[in-house]
TrEMBL record:
Limits of the N-acetyltransferase domain: 9-174
GO molecular function, a single term: acyltransferase activity, transferring groups other than amino-acyl groups
Organism: Euzebyella marina
Alphabetical keyword list: Transferase
Protein name listed in UniProt: N-acetyltransferase
InterPro entries: Acyl_CoA_acyltransferase, GNAT_dom
Superkingdom of origin: Bacteria
SUPFAM superfamilies recorded: Acyl-CoA N-acyltransferases (Nat)
DNA damage as UniProt keyword: no
């Protein structure tokens, strides 16, 4: 049995009880820049999303997991998206909602757990991540976790009246 459990956190599937956390996250304007969100989400829409969150990654082409502390408090989400089984790749996205929970190793632990799952269970060849160039903590984190900077998408994200570059990171399963 595969355990998505680390020393300080564990990962689990979304549950209906996660509605309030999702509502807080998806309606937090501070994270819209990285999520591409442009309008608030209603609890009704998020409840519908949760009702379909059980779909298999091969059907949905994505997998969203809650990052939980050992007291079961949800502190963030980690996603596999753009899942492509033919080419054996997926994107990886990560958010730790509360600033007080950041820079404590939980993001790195979550990345390690998802990489292990993606490479050993899903048999993926590669994972990629898109990180804004000015998001220095994430740039550092993905580099530290073995992702290589393979390119820069110039003026990729328009935010707060200006364009920002986005770095493309890739990790190969060697």
């Amino acid at each position: 049995m595969l355990k998505l459990q680390g020393e300080n956190i564990f990962l689990r599937a979304l549950e209906p009880e996660d509605l309030d956390f999702l509502y807080e996250l998806e309606n937090n304007g501070d994270v819209w820049e990285i999520s591409g969100t442009t309008a608030p989400y209603s609890k009704f829409i998020l409840r519908q999303y949760l009702e379909n969150a059980h779909k298999d990654i091969f059907e949905a082409k994505q997998l969203r997991l809650c990052i939980c502390k050992h007291d079961h408090k949800v502190i963030g989400l980690i996603d596999l998206f753009d899942f492509d089984p033919k080419h054996r790749r997926a994107g990886l996205g990560l958010i730790v909602l509360e600033k007080a929970e950041r820079n404590k190793g939980v993001g790195g632990e979550a990345i390690e757990l998802v990489c292990h799952y993606a490479f050993s269970v899903l048999d993926l060849r590669q994972l990629f991540a898109n990180v804004l160039e000015d998001n220095l903590p994430s740039v550092h984190l993905f580099g530290k976790k073995g992702f290589q900077k393979i390119g820069v998408k110039k003026d990729w994200i328009y935010s707060q009246g200006r364009f920002k570059n986005e770095i493309l990171f890739q990790k190969l399963n060697n």
